[in-house]
Specification:
Elements (H helix, E strand, L loop, with lengths): L1 H11 L9 E8 L2 E8 L6 E6 L3 E6 L5 E6 L9 E6 L10 E6 L10 E12 L5 E12 L6 E9 L12 E11 L10 E7 L3 E5 L3 E6 L7 E6 L9 E8 L9 E6 L7 E12 L6 E12 L6 E11 L23 E2 L5
Parallel strand pairs: 16-17
Antiparallel strand pairs: 1-2, 1-10, 3-4, 4-5, 5-7, 6-8, 6-21, 8-9, 9-10, 11-12, 11-20, 13-14, 14-15, 15-17, 16-18, 18-19, 19-20
Length: 342
């Protein structure tokens, strides 16, 4: 495999002032095609370059505007391969990175992201301008949520019918609550809500866990819990909880709001049955909790259960990999690997 990767490097470095081939971009998110556009060979709205040190960008200034930026790892310049657990540019010096923006539709640049991409081929000329590029990618902005899938061929003969990449994270879960008559937040209702990464935002700092429906989901809901002060959130029962984010010293935090209704103050308790976080990025991979809250210290209660499981995909455990210097030394994390090429 290492021999083939060296061959790829040699191929990628060949300059080509007038690369031939088709140009097409396809972007899909939440099951909807945001763009599937072919471009003419004479289109002059493209610009791109490969900087020294293994970064590359290609931008289109027509309608809609878009830009893609790729970075290799410090120990491996960009070459045709698969790049796992890529982040936004300069977020983590030990990682590859991917930034894709699509302006004019619903694409904006991520502050943080989890991504993976398969760099199929590229060529540059003597001035380091990108003359040909073929890449498949998936990007999940901010927390693990709806993935943006993309395939780009720029003056490339690489086939376009490659399968979409799997998302870095895949989330499924359930929220259930039952509200007493007189409870403000639940309004006496009982409801069960299934969610996945297309309809959820979730994150954890280690001391706190929070999840909410995506902005376009109606009714909107939010659930958060936290351990007292700076203690880590662990499996167990937390009593005498107050509104999360506003709790007094020594108190755990709890907050559940639904359909625009929330508590200014509350009394409550919750039990963390299971809780786990990804060792690389701290993404919550498991949260199962039950809770009870009393809005404005009233007698009527809202009782609920939250159950989330997130899995992440990675490349196979192969010999031909590049490791970030500060990653868990006892675990093989294939950040770059020689994946099959079409």
């Amino acid at each position: 495999m290492k021999k083939s990767m060296r061959a790829w490097v040699a191929l990628a470095s060949i300059g080509c002032l007038h690369a031939q081939g088709a140009t097409r971009l396809q972007v899909i998110e939440a099951g909807q095609t945001l763009i599937d556009q072919a471009y003419s060979e004479s289109d002059t709205d493209f610009s791109g370059s490969q900087a020294v040190g293994g970064s590359m960008n290609l931008a289109y200034s027509g309608t809609p505007q878009w830009r893609i930026e790729l970075h290799g790892t410090p120990s491996s310049p960009l070459l045709p391969a698969c790049y796992e657990r890529a982040k936004s540019s300069f977020v983590d010096a030990g990682r590859a990175s991917l930034v894709f923006t699509l302006n004019g539709l619903n694409g904006t640049e991520c502050n943080q992201s989890s991504a993976r991409f398969r760099l199929l081929s590229f060529e540059t000329d003597g001035a380091q301008n990108v003359t040909s590029l073929a890449v498949d990618f998936v990007q999940q902005c901010e927390d693990p949520r709806a993935a943006t899938f993309g395939k780009l061929r720029y003056r490339s003969d690489v086939p376009f019918d490659t399968p979409l990449m799997e998302p870095v994270f895949s989330t499924q879960g359930m929220l259930h609550f039952a509200s007493d008559d007189g409870d403000f937040v639940g309004d006496g209702q009982e409801a069960s809500i299934d969610f996945d990464d297309a309809s959820l935002r979730a994150g954890s700092s280690g001391t706190q866990f929070g999840a909410s429906s995506s902005a376009f989901i109606i009714p909107y809901w939010l659930f958060s819990i936290s351990a007292p002060d700076t203690s880590p959130l662990v499996v167990g029962t937390y009593t005498d909880a107050q509104r999360d984010g506003f709790q007094s010293t020594g108190h755990a935090g709890l907050n559940f709001s639904y359909d625009g209704r929330g508590c200014n103050e509350l009394d409550g308790s919750f039990t963390v049955l299971e809780f786990a976080r990804d060792r690389i990025d701290g993404v919550p991979t498991r949260m199962h909790a039950t809770f009870e809250q009393h809005c404005e210290h009233a007698v009527p209660a809202l009782r609920g259960e939250f159950d989330l499981t997130t899995t992440f995909e990675n490349g196979p455990f192969v010999d031909d990999v590049v490791f970030g210097d500060h990653f868990d030394g006892g675990v093989v994390w294939p950040l770059v690997w020689a994946c099959p090429m079409p």
